[in-house]
Structure formats: C-alpha cells, structure tokens
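ok trying this again, last paste got cut off
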Amino acid sequence: MAKTFKSWDVDQPVLLPPSVQELVPAGHLAHFVRDLVRESLDMSAILKPYTEDRGFPPYDPTMMTALLLYAYRQGLYASRRIANACEERVDVMAVTARQQPDFRTISDFRTRHLSALGGLFTQVLRLCQQAGLVSLGHVALDGTKIRANASKHKAMSYSRMKTAEPALAAEVAQWVATAAASDACEDAAYGVDRRGDELPEWVTNKPHRLEKIRAAKAALEAEAAALARKEKAPLDRPRRGRPAKNPPGMPRDRVQRNVTDPDSRIMKARDGFIQGDNAQAAVDADHQVIVAQGLTNQASDAHQLEPMLAHITTNTGRQARELSADAGYCSEHNLTT
C-alpha cells in the first residue's frame, strides 16, 4: 500500500485570503509592534498633515509607522530592503496586512514625518516604564562615531575656498561663453525650435559646485564673526606688535567645512578618521531599554554627559541612581557633577 502524503498543490488558488493573524504564530513580535502602534501610541502628529480629501487614498500612516518600527527592529533600514520584505517576508506582511508600498513611498514617508517619528521614542519609553521595564537603578552610557553621508575629502579649508572660488568662477564664465557661442552656431544650423540650442549638461555641474563653495565660505565667515562678538573683541581695535595672519572676525585658513554635509565633522574612530557624527545612547541596565539618545557633531564624549542626564530626566520623569560610562566621559567637571 502506497504511503499517503499531505496535498501539495502549488497551483491551487486560495478561495479566501488568510487572516494576518495566521501568517505568524500568536505572540510574535510582528503582532506586538502592529498592535502597539494601533492601540497605544498617539499618532496625531503624523496624522495631522493629511487634510486633503482629493486624490487617490494614500497608505494608512499608522500602518506605515508600524512598518518602519518593525523593520528597524529587524535591522532593515534601507527603503528598498523594507519594500522587498513587504513582498517576501510573512512577518512583515502580518504588519502591513499584505500591502506592498514601494521603496519611494517608504522613503518619502520617513522623510516627511522624521520629527514626529522621533517623538514616538518618548511614548514607547513611557509605555516601557508603565510595564516595569525601566527601573533606572543603573544606566549605562556610551557614544559611537557614525559615518556621515559625506566624504572627509569634501571638507575644504577656508584658504582653499578663497583659491577655488575665483578659479571656478572664471571657468564657469568661460564655459557659459563657449556654450552661448555654440548655441548661436547651432541655432543658425538647425533653427531655434530644435533641441540643439540647450546648454550642455556638463555646464550645470560647475556652477552648482561654485554655489556650494560660496555658501560654505559665507557660513565660516559668519561663525568667525559670531565668535569674535562672543569674545567681545572689537574688529576695528588697533593691534600692537606683529600683524595677525588673519583679521579679527575672519576664519583661519585651516578651518574646514564639509560642502556635502555641513553639520558633520572629521572625527577619529576605530578604523581611522571619518567624516561623521557622534551618536549617544543611555540604556537601562536591568531590561536593556534605551532611556535617552542623542546625536552631536562634537567628537568628545565628555561634553555629552550632562545633556544625556538631562534627556533621561525629560524622557522618564526621574533620574537614575547609578550611571556607568567609559573613560571618554571623564573630566574634572563631570567627576564633581
């Protein structure tokens, strides 16, 4: 007698779609995150901008928020990977109810609601407190350097900006003049209604870079002038002795500013110097719940101790009894705080 096996008919269509509750087992993290966002979080800050009645209905913002939170918890941060998971992973389908937003929709939603999504951190932390997951008996604090979306080679010194600006301006002017002469010849040859009278694509790159350099140069000059006013140093006060290398209120030639990500700084990390930022996190020792987080462009951790302690109080309503931090936070001021 032949053995009987369970039917495996891959071509058999499903008469009724399965419930999302059946996609993953009960008690799965996907159910928890989805229900947490639906039932426990205040979504008013994210829902408020949706006031237009016309147009095709967008994806539910609550679903999109749950999708982002669950994806980040699973280590999926890139919008394309999240969109791919919506098509292939049943745990993600349990969150989205099998809806499949594309990567651009996911990326635009995150960008549009970035500030409001950050506010959900405090709400989740409050829920953890109510559930007894934040004791604040002992909190561990540390910082890590993260790479910025900019190359450290794109940081230009003020001296180089002063040299590059007129050179690029002259080159742009020459290219514009050449393009204009070329247009005139092509207009005569092909007629004014033909596409040949447009400026070449390569002309637009140099002016854009020139604009970036001028903006960075102006920002450095503004910072230097503000620092001079803060130090109460009159810009027109006569100076004795050897002439200064740079006038008061003007940036030093070696001061740098990144033209791609002006907020980032060059920092020393484990694998050498990077263009990036310093990310801070304070974690409750008993339950590994993050109770405070921050991002700064200061390389030293020592200046972040007091701000992180203030964030803990703001987020939880009270302060930790104990705090541990590595030697990077050690300073005379912090030891006496």
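PB: full thing came through this time. DSSP finds eleven helices and seven strands in the chain.
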